[in-house]
TrEMBL record:
Organism expressing this protein natively: Dactylosporangium fulvum
Superkingdom classification of source: Bacteria
A Pfam family assignment: MarR_2
Gene3D superfamilies: Winged helix-like DNA-binding domain superfamily/Winged helix DNA-binding domain (1.10.10.10)
Protein's UniProt name: MarR family transcriptional regulator
InterPro entries, alphabetized: HTH_MarR-typ (IPR000835), MarR/SlyA-like (IPR039422), WH-like_DNA-bd_sf (IPR036388), WH_DNA-bd_sf (IPR036390)
Length: 168
């Protein structure tokens, strides 16, 4: 069987602290390495378009929401696991770049909405296509059936550890 970098790392731990080696370590290290490769692909694509990964996340969340491409900042922050300060900084930069607009809720002055501008819709679509293309290129060497099976198995693991979709 061919070996990857995780096999080397796990074997080193098996030599040093054998009681720490487990299937959980093996899986965790592989997920960590895979996440790093995916993050690198995202950073390359977003950076080429003048965006940070966090800005990409906000643009894609707004575009994914569908017309009118609007959400509350608190919804964005919760969905993207950003702090209120972190989301504020990202939104400020996107607004300065003309990619989002902010508006008060007509029914409740305490509520503000973030909406993609027309330029923001175009940029969101462009960057989502760039990132998904990079992901496809990253996984192109693996058979599609293997990628599908891995995604299905990881879904099962995420659900088993409590990361379930909220029911509508």
């Amino acid at each position: 069987m061919r070996r990857d970098q995780v096999d080397v790392i796990v074997e080193e731990w098996r030599q040093q602290l054998p009681d720490t080696v487990s299937p959980a370590m093996d899986l965790g290290k592989r997920i960590h390495r895979l996440a790093g490769r995916l993050q690198e692909a995202v950073r390359n694509e977003t950076g080429a378009l003048g965006l940070t990964p966090a800005e990409f996340d906000v643009l894609s969340a707004l575009r994914r929401a569908g017309e009118p491409y609007a959400m509350k900042p608190s919804e964005l922050a919760a969905g993207l696991l950003l702090t209120s300060g972190g989301i504020s900084n990202v939104l400020r930069r996107l607004q300065q770049d003309g990619l989002i607009e902010r508006e008060a809720d007509a029914a409740d002055a305490r509520v503000a909405w973030v909406r993609l501008s027309p330029d923001g819709v175009r940029m969101a679509e462009r960057v989502v296509r760039a990132v998904t293309g990079a992901q496809a290129r990253l996984f192109a060497a693996a058979p599609e059936a293997m990628v599908i099976e891995a995604a299905d198995r990881l879904r099962e693991i995420l659900i088993a550890i409590g990361d379930q979709a909220k029911e509508d």
